Amino acid sequence: MIRQVSIFLENHQGRLNNMLKILADHQINIRSLNIAETMDYGVVRLILQDTDKGIEVLKKNNIICKTTPVLAVEVSDDPGGLSHLVDTLTKEDINIVYAYSFLPKKTENAIIIIRIDDEVREKAIAVLEAVSDIHLLDRDTLLVK
Amino acid sequence: MYWNKSCETMPRERLKEVQLERLQVMVNRIYHEVPFYRDRFQEMGILPTDIKSLEDLQKLPFTTKVDLRDNYPYGLFAAPLEKIVRIHASSGTTGKPTVVGYTRKDIANWADMMARCLVATGGNEHSVIQNAYGYGLFTGGLGVHYGAECLGASIIPISGGNTQKQMMLMKDFGSTILTCTPSYAIYLAESLKENGIDPESLNLQAGIFGAEPWSENIRKEIEKKLKIKAYDIYGLSEIMGPGVAIECEAQSGLHVWEDHFIPEIIDPNTLEVLPYGEQGELVITTITKEGIPILRYRTRDITKIIAEPCECGRTHLRISRLQGRTDDMLIIRGVNVFPTQIESVLLEIGEVEPHYQLVVRRDGSLDTLEIKVELSEELFSDRISGLEELERRIRDRIGSIIGISSKITLVEPKTLPRSEGKSQRVVDLRNI
C-alpha cells in the first residue's frame, strides 16, 4: 500500500506555488502530482519521496493535509495496458474513485496510482495480485522505480 | 386622515398621564404575575409603588432577548394559557425561538394600531392590500392582516414569494397597497419590468415596507420603479409585531404609538438614558400588553427620538429611520440571523469550534448569504465529492435552522480574521 499526501488548497493565485515551495525548501521530492479543482478550492494529491517529512512541514505551515492509502500498479506501457487493469477491477464490481500516472525513471512499464473505496480496497488487492501481468507495488519498490 | 383620532392626536400632557397610569397598572401586574420580574424587582429593592412618575421608569430593570430565551417558552407570560389566543415566535440567538403570546385584547390593540398605520399611509376601507409578508410564526403576515380587516380594507393574504402570482393578482385584483420587505419590493418592481407590466397601468398607490433595514436611497428607488409612495414600518415580535411605529405622509420619522408603548433611547455601553435627539439604542416598554408585557426591552436597534411636533398632527413621538444594530444580528430577506446559530450548526457537524465568517451581499435586489468555513483536518476529504457532500450538509442544516439558503465556501485554516470583536464574524457589504 502506498500513502498519498492529500492537500486542501483554496483556488487562488499563488496557493499552489506556496505549498510547492515549502516542499522544495525542505528538499522533499515530488514523484507524482494530481490536482482536482472546483471554483473555490482544489485537492492536490502527491506521492512524495519522504511522506512523513512532507506531512510534518506542511502541517507546520497550517496547510491541511493527510495521507490517503492508494494502490500503485505497474502495467505494460502498451495500448490496452490501462484498459486491462480497469477491466479486471470492473469485472469484480470494484470502482476506481480516481487515478493518475506515476512517473517512473527506471522502468519501461507504466505505473498507475489508483484510489479505491476503503471498503473494497482489500478485495481489489486480492483481485490484482491474482493477475499475472499486473504488478502491485509496495512503497519501497515504487520509490526506486 | 386618522384611524383613531382621539388617541393619535391626544395632547402630550394627557398622553403622559395615560402612560403613567398604564405603566403603574402594568408594573403592579407583572410583579404579581411574572416571577422573573418579581425576582428582579426584589434583587434591586424596588416595589411597584415606587413608580410615581414616568421618570421612575429608569429605575426598572431591562429585558433582553436572552431573558426571553431563558424563560422559554411561556415563562414571561403574564396571562394563563386559557387567556392566550395566539402564539408567535421569532428566531432566537441559539436555535430556540423567542415566544410571545397574545390575549384577545392584545390582538385587538395590535389590529387597531396596524389600522392606524394603514390610514397614516393613505389606506381606507376602499384599499386593496396585497400582503406579501410571510404568514406563520413570523408576526408580519398576520399583523398586517388583522389591521387591514379592522380597518375594513380588502386584504389579499398572498404571503411571501411566488412572484408570478404576485404580479397577476396585483394586476387583476387592482391592489392599491403593497406590504412586504423593501428588498422584495425592488425584486417585484424588476420582475414587473421584465414581464412588460407598466407600474402606471396598476392601481398601486403605496407600499408599507419593513422587517429589514433600508435606506432613503432604496426608498427613492422603490418609489421611482413602482410609481408609489413607500413608507417605513417598525415592529418586533417581542413588543408586538409590525405596527409599533409607522411613517406618516410626512415621511420624516416613524410615530411610536405612545398610548401603548414608552420608547427610550439609551447609551448601549453605560445604559444611561439619553436625551431626545441623541442617537442610541431603542428601548421599549409595553404598557397595555396582557399576554407578555415587557419592561424596557433592549431592541438593539439604533435610532434617535424626534420630539418636535410633526406636521401630520399626530402627537406621538417619532423615531428616525433605523441606523443599525448594537449586536451582530443580521436581517437577511426579513429573517433574523445570528452568527451563533451558524456556529451551533458547525459545532454539530465538525465537533470542534469552527472559524467562520458570514458575508452578506446585495445581489441585484436580493440579499445573499455566504458562509466561509475554515476546513479542519477531520472534515477534509481527498475526494471532491466528499467535500461537496460536506458543503451540502452544512447548507441544508443551516437552511433548516434559519430558513434561508446560503453558499458555503470552504477555506484554508487560519485565513479568516480571528475575532477580537464579534464584528469580525460578519461582513455586511449591502451598503444599506
What does this structure look like?
- The complex is a heterodimer of chains A (145) and B (432).
- Chain A is α+β, with helices and mostly antiparallel strands.
- Chain A contains 5 helices and 7 strands.
- In chain A, strands 1, 2, 3, 4, 5, 6 and 7 form a 7-stranded antiparallel beta sheet that branches.
- In chain A, a hairpin with a 3-residue loop joins strand 2 and strand 3.
- Chain A is globular, with a radius of gyration of 16 Å.
- Chain B has 2 domains: 327 residues, Rossmann fold, CATH 3.40.50.12780; 99 residues, GMP Synthetase, Chain A, domain 3 (2-Layer Sandwich).
- In chain B, 32% of the residues lie in helices and 24% in strands.
- Chain B contains 11 helices and 21 strands.
- In chain B, the strands form 5 sheets. A 9-stranded mixed beta sheet of chain B has the order 4-3-5-6-7-8-9-14-13, sandwiched between helices. Chain B has a 4-stranded antiparallel beta sheet with strand order 10-11-12-15.
- The mean pLDDT of chain B is 91.
- Chains A and B meet through strand 1, strand 3 and strand 4 of A and helix 11 and strand 20 of B.
